[in-house]
Amino acid sequence: MAKTLSDIKQSLDSNLGRRLKLKANGGRRKTIERCGVLTETYPSIFVVELDEENALERVSYSYADVLTETVQLTFFDETSGNLAIGGQ
């Protein structure tokens, strides 16, 4: 992805509503890998609605998390369903 916080925000703004794969550092050597949809972007954070079987779960991260590679986002290609755009 981009190298500054404003570049990261602009990149995510252009991908609103797209499906993605989220890989986040959960602390204590835990890594969380989930799929979801990028739903909202705000001046300091972005919101992802994660796929769940029974309930909808929303998580938010800051753009600094993407910059420091605490969170990695990979968007799906809408036509083929394959992973298309890498995060980090």
TrEMBL record:
Protein name according to UniProt: Biofilm formation stimulator Veg
A Pfam family this chain is assigned to: VEG
Top-rank taxon: Bacteria
